[in-house]
Amino acid sequence: MTDLHLPWLELSILFCLIGAVWVSRVKVPHIARNRALLCSGLALIATTGAWLDFDFLDAKQADDSLHLLSHLAGRELLIMDELSAPLLPLAALLYFLVILATLHTKIRRFSFAWNLVSEAIILAMYSCKEPWGIIGMLAVGIIPPFLELRERGKPTHVYIIHMTLFVLLLIVGWTFAEIEGTDRIHTLWVVIPLLGAILIRSGIAPFHCWMTDLFEHASFGTALLFVTPIAGAYAAVRLVMPIAPDWMLRSIGLASLFTAVYASGMALIQIEARRLFCYLFLSHSALVLVGLEIVTPMALTGALCLWLSVGMALGGFGLTLRALEARRGRLSLTHFHGLYEHAPELAICFILTGLASVGFPGTVGFIGTELLVDGAVEAYPYIGVAVVIAGALNGVALVKTYFILFTGTQYASAVSLQIRTRERFAVLLLAALILAGGIYPQPGVESRHRAVEELLHERESRAPIPTTIETPHHHH
Amino acid sequence: MPSAEQLVTALGWCIVICPIVLLCVLGLSSLLSRRLPEEVINALLKTTMIVGLTSSVLMLALMLPMSNPHVTIEGGKWVHIPEYEFHFKLIYDRLSIPFIILSFVLCGTIFAFASRYMHREPGYNRFFVLNAVFLLGMTVTSLAGTVETLFAGWELVGLSSALLVAFFHERPAPVRNGLRVWCVYRVSDAALLIAALTLHHFGHTDFENVLGSESWPYGRTEVSDHEALVVGLLMLLAAAGKSALIPFSGWLPRAMEGPTPSSAVFYGALSVHLGAFLLLRISPILEKSPLLCALIVTLGLSTAVYATIAGRVQTDIKSAICFASLTQVALIVAEIGFGLRYIPLFHILGNGCLRTLQFVRAPTLLQDRRLLENAIGDRLPKSSSFWRSLLPHTLQIWLYRFAIERGYLDAMIDDYIVAPFVAVFRFCDRMERRWTDYLSGGKSRESDEADGTPGSLEEFL
User: Fold this and answer.
1) Which chain B residue has its CA at the smallest distance from A367's CA?
2) Chain A within 8 Å of B444 (Cβ-Cβ)?
3) Using N-to-C axis directions, what is the helix angle for B419-440 and A209-217, rounded to 10°?
4) Which of A306, B145, B326, B333 could form a disulfide with B300 if both were Cys (CB 3.0 to 4.6 A apart)?
5) Which of chain A's residues have a Cβ under 8 Å away from the Cβ of B435?
């Protein structure tokens, strides 16, 4: 296997873990934030370096140069391939921007140490192709938000019930998959638990309530960072796609299609901004899953492009909402707020990131959405149109929220609500990425297409995928 | 000395680059919070408009002697993977060139007017950024050589339109109306996108492939009758949304909340004619389906009747002009349904110019009226309609109510589409609340207490 020039992956995880320990040792919030920012920034540099290095190597997959972890584990654990190459810097960027844009109002409530731990877990998961490694990271990843909820004295039942069920189903499903091996048709003992696990983690209706609950009770930053990397989609691609029978993928695809429309409709009637964001996100992540489960090159490429654009666009959208929350508290959508005059840059960022998420021309989401919509209609000529409907409803929800938050009245504030320097940097960086990806999309699309070719090759190289499955009874 | 072909290509690119430069300069200055002085904005507007218009007119002059005035400029494959290609292709022909000249003439006039009308307005820069988005959208839509390109321009026009309706955003009414416009445009956009997907599904990619390579309006399509009907119906829905045809007409008077210059160029002249433009562009498809043509004529004529009735009772000048404009747009649509091609095109050009003039004169209506009355030395005569004397009184009352309520179109959409939609999703929301309350063993929604009150402003400081 090709080696990267530096141990980028191990370094990125190490920066986060060291940072978590370093940050946890200080009690002064400002110092904690600055330390977290430094470590997160280093992790971002390391992941970006890994991506560029991987691109330069032109390899199908690559691992770290020093093999430190491999020596300890006895096998290669951290591997980078076409799929994970841009996901790593994307996740690191989201964490970096959230920490960067955390204002004084949020600084005491936001746990920098635990979020660095979360970042390390996410980066480790994206760097891992080993099924048990991914399952382990997914399981460990649910702990930091749980601890935060408990520490803040918030109800944890909804979150913990769903997440425990998710982990159990994942472990059961994969255990049976290993018992059955790769040379035979998988039974329902494998398929049903894995299907359930993916549906729960991806927030597919009716298993999505944990996500709205998390946004209700956790700090916005933690909830945002827990969902925006779309870990459920990663589990679907790595664990399910290579072994799943067609009917299972179709089931996930149809359930996701329903969720995309359902969540976009729900977004329209929400009366609070966080819940609205959550439903918008659910709708978009469901669209990513729709594309992933159609398993045609075009739809898959669209889904992978959308994955990146949704992470970037909705990450930025969430950051803008969080910035507004820092100024106005929880944002009701039942009346106008009129914040445009106070923070026009935030308004521009809000509309730009929102439009990018719904695939507006000239933004990073446009081509991904086009590919996905084309692929969905090709696979499901009639119900594929639901993707278009979901997009239209999301667009309405977005502009409606923009109007409610930024216009409709004149808000008189005793203090300046102007954008801060850190926020301005985050806004400009996101705007640059969104517009650059929209104006020159070819490299991104090409890279996602290469990832798709690999995924499809992997799926084909496994044991022949059956279109029908054996029941457990039949099997025994 | 450049060849004629090189010159045409250069001019073609120049037409597209002008609005792009305008948008980039104005948009980036807004994004970077470096507001340009009004004089700089005006100079930039003037330069780009003059260059764009001159290029368009020169292009027309170069194309006039051509036997087949149909120039295609290939912008290359913007995105290409084995399964998908996005061509950026522009078409300059008898349809797009007049439309693009109209766009530059009217936008240039309106920009010159607005530079004084909007002088020292707090949103001066925002106004022109949105107008630059609109001009780019119009240019891309008019010259689009593929459905995807047309869709991209179509969306840009829609967004700028909705945000300009809500331009005076410190009041709730313009914002609500802007949202209404946006909702209708989203329906229109979705219909256009589905039409594009249907064309792809039937194996067609760009306009030359669908409409033939002959110059407009002599193109011949290869799509089957059934395909023509399906795609045509979707395109008609898209056109109905954009051109405010029945049942979407309710948004047009609402759009008058925007600044008068943008109302003029959007709803008097360009944007409102985009639906008709789309139908003209796909005219070879329409010719394949008599049923589709009959539907277009019916929709056009019924909208014309509706608009002329509603327009007669409007109490503000902008609404009256917009209904007058809609009457003409609807007639243009009917003309297209009857199989006419050049007449609707000239009708668009004439109506666009006339309504722009009327809109920009609207703020001085009372002054104009006073001048007229002073000139004749008496009050202006009030003429009673001939038709009024023929109608029974009860029917007059009914028609008046119908007109003042704008045909109950908005009420019908609210009652039969929006209300059931909201009711269904509110029911789902209640069910979700019960479920999370049950799992939590108590109240699960903190968001119920959200009131927008700042928690700790001293911390923010």
Assistant:
1) B79
2) yes
3) 70
4) B333
5) 209
